[in-house]
């Protein structure tokens, strides 16, 4: 048993957990414990932007989950990366700064979630942000979450942008004003050419605080209740089973996979699932693990001629050395690249009232993630449906924390998702055939022009579709039968317990999900302070000091 009691115990030092620890420990009268199953973010490849290639699929930094075989993907199972390190998935993700669309949050509010409309959440985005352009409206410049321009340009990407414009997708400079329609280069969470993860932004600057305890290598097992209240948490660290007591609130920030699994192991979840594993039910909540949503990206590859792509530059040792030299001296070039550089938000058809497709365009190509680049010049136009109708679930595969979970996204299981997938492939082909790209003679390599009919395009989508790493929704906010938390993120029927991460989203946001998760954590910290009659959390800059973490 850890000595004493904590006012707040935060489970998971990922994006949400790092921010929560920052805000909640700002009150020196509150004792805060932050548990992280992974290790410190000292692995060098975390910080070099292209290092995601060596972090995803690496058990040092990734949980290395897998989905079940998906019928919508023609029987394929997918790797399902989730960060297992300080900073969580912000230490291994694509670094893209994206808020989503104003209508996403207004939709949350329309479902009965008071205080979650666009006007309510925008101040939290602005407060945490440190945007590179002081003249940009609706952006913050004094926060911890650094946003910068990318330090690269590619002729083939500029040509794609021009072709998109010829298909009605206008060039834009800012995707984060509430309507992200258009095409432009993504802004990224980097600082001076290095990844800016949430541990750097929110956790390391406050490591001196004596009221904050951070335990790494500490994997949460189950919550312990006393008279219907979350009173303690059991966890494993270095092979030893430990407990920590809480006199205030336990906040789950373990993500869309980790948070529902912990609830289920603790006896909070669907009654049939708990019975199947012999877990005593403490609170029947059928929505724990349900409502799983993710963005399925369709990766179309086009061969090109007469233009440089990364496929050629990375093919020789001289090219690799030149890239390394450019990064060492200028912190620019391919080693500073986010996984996707150019973005576009478009409508799948005239019936779409706002953009429902997102493109991630890259000056490279490969058969699948983790495999070598192709030996021919090519670019990839990856496109995902932003608001899928398909719903999946996540469930424990056993009572031990080490038991692999059952992750079933049910991609393309809804007819509407199939229709939009086919429309997305057709739109991508029209962009590739536009005059601005014609000089490079684009030739579709994947999926291939043999797929033409609606049925054939749906089959092709199943062949080339893969996750873009945006799982959300498995502890949804609301008051319907599948809701797990209320609009103050309190778990229904369990006192002293909240969830504050991407799992609470009732519907996925229209874009990359990391910064919306930070917004959720910032709003949660504010609500926790209000509900516990403590001063509002504030940012407190702090000098580096000796670490007190274990």
TrEMBL record:
Gene3D superfamilies: FAD/NAD(P)-binding domain, Glucose Oxidase, domain 3. FAD binds at residue 85. Its cofactor is FAD. Residues 83-106, 255-269 form the Glucose-methanol-choline oxidoreductase N-terminal domain. Keywords: FAD, Flavoprotein. One of its GO terms (molecular function) is flavin adenine dinucleotide binding. Belongs to the GMC oxidoreductase family. This is Choline dehydrogenase. It comes from Chromobacterium sinusclupearum.
């Amino acid at each position: 048993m850890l000595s004493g009691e904590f006012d707040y115990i935060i489970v998971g030092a990922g994006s949400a957990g790092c921010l929560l620890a920052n805000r909640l420990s700002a009150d020196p009268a509150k004792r805060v414990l932050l548990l992280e199953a992974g290790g410190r973010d000292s692995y060098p490849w975390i910080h070099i932007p292209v290092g995601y290639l060596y972090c995803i699929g690496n058990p040092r930094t990734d949980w290395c989950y897998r989905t079940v075989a998906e019928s919508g993907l023609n029987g394929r199972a997918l790797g399902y990366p989730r960060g297992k390190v300080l900073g969580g998935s912000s230490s291994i993700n694509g670094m893209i700064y994206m808020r989503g669309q104003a209508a996403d949050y207004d939709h949350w509010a329309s479902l009965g979630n008071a205080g979650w409309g666009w006007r309510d959440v925008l101040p939290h985005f602005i407060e945490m942000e440190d945007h590179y352009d002081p003249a940009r409206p609706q952006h913050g410049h004094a926060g911890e979450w650094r946003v910068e321009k990318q330090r690269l340009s590619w002729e083939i990407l500029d040509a794609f942008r021009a072709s998109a414009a010829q298909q009605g997708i206008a060039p834009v400079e800012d995707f984060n004003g509430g309507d992200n329609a258009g095409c432009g280069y993504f802004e990224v969470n980097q600082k001076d050419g290095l990844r800016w993860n949430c541990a750097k932004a929110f956790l390391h600057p406050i490591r001196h605080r004596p009221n904050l305890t951070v335990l790494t290598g500490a994997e949460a097992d189950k919550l312990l209740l006393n008279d219907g209240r979350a009173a303690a948490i059991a966890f494993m660290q270095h092979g030893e089973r430990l407990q920590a007591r809480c006199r205030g609130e336990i906040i789950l920030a373990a993500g869309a996979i980790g948070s529902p699994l912990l609830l289920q192991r603790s006896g909070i979840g669907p009654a049939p699932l708990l019975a199947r594993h012999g877990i005593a039910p403490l609170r029947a909540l059928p929505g724990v693990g349900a409502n799983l949503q993710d963005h399925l990206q369709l990766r179309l590859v086009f061969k090109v001629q007469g233009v440089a792509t990364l496929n050629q530059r990375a093919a020789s040792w001289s090219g690799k050395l030149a890239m390394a030299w450019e990064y060492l001296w200028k912190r620019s070039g391919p080693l500073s690249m986010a996984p996707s550089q150019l973005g576009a938000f478009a409508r799948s058809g005239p019936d779409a009232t706002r953009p429902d497709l997102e493109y991630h365009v890259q000056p490279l190509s490969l058969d699948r993630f983790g495999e070598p680049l192709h030996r021919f010049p090519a670019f990839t136009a990856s496109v995902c449906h932003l608001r899928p109708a398909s719903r999946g679930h996540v469930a424990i595969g056993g009572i031990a924390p080490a038991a692999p979970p059952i992750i079933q996204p049910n991609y393309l299981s809804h007819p509407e998702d199939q229709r939009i997938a086919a429309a997305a492939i057709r739109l991508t082909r029209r962009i590739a055939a536009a005059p601005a790209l014609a000089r490079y003679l684009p030739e579709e390599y994947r999926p291939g022009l043999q797929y033409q009919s609606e049925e054939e395009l749906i089959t092709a989508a199943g062949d080339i579709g893969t996750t873009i790493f945006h799982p959300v929704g498995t502890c949804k906010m609301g008051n319907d039968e599948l809701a797990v938390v209320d609009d103050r993120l309190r778990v229904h029927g369990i006192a002293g317990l909240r969830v504050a991460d991407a799992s609470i989203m009732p519907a996925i946001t229209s874009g990359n999900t990391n910064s919306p998760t930070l917004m959720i954590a910032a709003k949660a910290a504010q609500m926790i302070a209000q509900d516990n009659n403590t001063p509002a959390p504030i940012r407190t800059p702090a000098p580096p000091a000796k670490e007190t973490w274990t």
